[in-house]
Amino acid sequence: MALVDTGAIPGGGRLRLFRDGPHYVIKLDDGTDLMSTRAHGSEEALAQQAALRLGARPAAQWLVGGLGIGYTLAAALRQVGADARVTVAELVPAVVAWNRDWLGAFAGHPLADARAQLHEGDVAELLRGAGRRWDAILLDVDNGPEGITRAGNDWLYAPAGLRAIRAALRAGGVLAVWSAHSAPAFTRRLAEAGFAVEELPARALGRRGQRHRLWLAQARPA
Question: Does position 147 have pLDDT exceeding 60, yes or no?
């Protein structure tokens, strides 16, 4: 496995991009694997499951937190119509550059899709005070609610962040959250924030590979 590049995480820490034969892996400085071009089934399931609960909507507005290798964005684009817009927020500038230089082909170059809009910054910036802007919000950041790679992301999974997300969703909208592990406390926080919650298993390689977790949440009527 050969180191290709490194990138600073705003606020502290670094990501490292490795090449492993024909594939790439993104790791933290401590060696923790974050994502790989080999395994992306659960990221695609995140968008698929959100779309199943949302249904067809004209001019749908989706928000994806975390570009990563682009699989979640690509899967979201496959779920929406020609008049939709999918905004992806990526905090780490190097991750955007890696998608353009080395990784884009693996997910089918989703950043080149005319329906995709890139926000180079914190996804929280698009959630605070957003009004009822989004039909679907997909969070694929860190390694899940209890796998924080950046302290600033705590807000997304805390009660204040979940209330802001609920307020940013249009009627019947869906919040979908990816995690490497189960997190019962997060399930409770979602319910306490006014969401009806489903927690689902998902495999990294379709029916094989690591077991990941997905939360699908819709706001309960007030």
Answer: no
Look at residue 130 and tell me whether its pLDDT is greater than 70. Answer: yes
How far is the CA of 203 from the CAs of 42, 180, 191, 216, in angstroms?
5, 10, 25, 16
Give the burial string for 8-19 (b: 16+ CB within 10 Å, else e). Answer: ebeeeeebbbbe
Helix (H, G, I), strand (E, B) or coil at 207: coil
21: enclosing H helix or E strand: none
**β-bridge partners, 203:** 206, 211
Place of tokens 């399931």: 45
pLDDT at 194 over 80: yes
Place of tokens 């927690």: 199
Cβ–Cβ contacts within 10 Å for residue 62, how many? 29
Q: Dump pLDDT digits (tens) for 50-104.
A: 999 999 999 999 999 999 999 999 999 999 999 999 999 999 999 999 999 999 9
Residue 141's pLDDT is: 86
Helix or strand holding residue 61 (H, E): strand 61-65
Residue for token pair 């004209």? 58
- Domains of the chain, earliest start first: 39-219 (3.40.50.150)
Q: Cβ atoms within 10 A of the Cβ of 3, count? A: 10
Distance from C-alpha of 8 to C-alpha of 95, rounded to nearest angstrom? 10
CB of 198 within 8 A of CB of 153? Answer: no
Contact yes or no for 175/195 (Cβ under 8 A): yes
- pTM of the predicted structure, to 2 decimals: 0.93
